[in-house]
Amino acid sequence: MPRLPVVSGRQAIRALEKAGFTVVAQEGSHVKMKKPGPTRTLIAIVPMHPELARKTLLSILRQADLSVEEFRALL
Which of 13, 23, 50, 75 is the most buried (most CB within 10 A)? Predict the structure, then answer.
């Protein structure tokens, strides 16, 4: 498994937007992003932290149904 990049919440949001997600809401420091699909709608919650923790980023990638390689390509 390739290493996870160290990214901020803002960088993660930009990468998810390239993957087809749109920002639908923000509550406090957490941004809710949505991507409609043919069988299900994906929803990812991204905290606006200066640096995302490793487990937090893994959780975001799991919610977005993206691999680490796909995410790195979007950065």
Answer: 13
